[in-house]
Amino acid sequence: MKKTNLSDYDPTQVPSGKEYRIGIAVAEWNKEITDALAEGAIDTLRKYDVAEDNIVLIHVPGSFELTSGADLMLRNDEKLDAVICIGCVIQGETRHFDFICEAVSQGVTNVAIKHGKPVIFSLLTTNNVEQAIDRSGGKHGNKGIEGAATALKMIALQKTLESKRQKA
Ligand code: RBF
């Protein structure tokens, strides 16, 4: 298997986001990395026709706050179809890394289930800065792009299933 660009996805399989409204919560820790991820996500949403007014961006202090940031967005904007959570946690010398990663992965899942809407986990969890750079526009692509494509696919899936249920 070719392993150079992990953000490879089939662009023909990504649905149009013309009617969609998507939130992006971005953590300020490791800002250069998370800004690059957010840029990849926003460019991708634009590429698939999400209207500028329908891309709603907020910032939270650190990745740990992504869960409550996503929850606040969904609670206060009923028109949002999904939220993409963007952060970067870099392994340090203490156990914070494990606690933050665990909290965000569980938290994002809980918010998605609570609101019945896709909440996307675009969190880099790396051993060092170099690995983070490689995945935010470097040799392993940009995980923000992948997060945006995932949001579009999940919203389309949700709308398909909802319309099937209504017809049944
Ligand atoms: N937030 C991140 O988004 N990435 C990190 O790598 C990161 N490392 C942290 C390391 C320590 C020791 C602490 C105390 C916090 C760290 N945070 C990091 C911030 C965390 O997500 C959160 O904002 C704070 O713990 C406040 O709730």
Describe the structure.
- This protein has five helices and six strands.
- α1 packs across α5 (143-167) and α2 (66-76) packs parallel to α3.
- It starts with 21 loop residues before the first strand and ends with a helix.
- With 168 residues, it is α/β, with parallel strands linked by helices.
- The protein has a single domain (15-167), classed as Rossmann fold (3-Layer(aba) Sandwich), CATH 3.40.50.
- It is 47% helix and 20% strand.
- The protein has helices at 31-47, 66-76, 96-115, 129-134, 143-167, and strands at residues 22-27, 55-60, 82-90, 119-126, 136-138, 141-142.
- The protein is globular.
- It has a four-stranded parallel beta sheet, with helices on both faces. The protein has a two-stranded antiparallel sheet with strand order 5-6.
- Bound molecules: riboflavin.
- The site of riboflavin (RBF) has 16 residues, from β3 and α3.
Any key phrases for this structure?
168 residues; alpha/beta; two-stranded antiparallel ribbon; Rossmann fold; binds riboflavin
Chart the SSEs and their pairings.
Blueprint: E1 22-27, H1 31-47, E2 55-60, H2 66-76, E3 82-90, H3 96-115, E4 119-126, H4 129-134, E5 136-138, E6 141-142, H5 143-167
Parallel strand pairs: 1-2, 1-3, 3-4
Antiparallel strand pairs: 5-6
Helix pairs in contact: 1-5, 2-3
The structure holds riboflavin.
As for the number of domains, it is 1
Count of strand segments: 6
Q: What's the CATH architecture name?
A: 3-Layer(aba) Sandwich
Shape: globular
Relative helix content: 40-55%
Tell me about the largest β-sheet.
Answer: 4 strands, parallel
Distance between termini? 42 Å
- CATH topology, anyone? Rossmann fold
Q: Which strand order does the major sheet show?
A: 2-1-3-4
Strand content: 15-25%
Bound molecules: riboflavin
Radius of gyration: 16 Å
- Note the total helix count: 5
The CATH class name reads: Alpha Beta
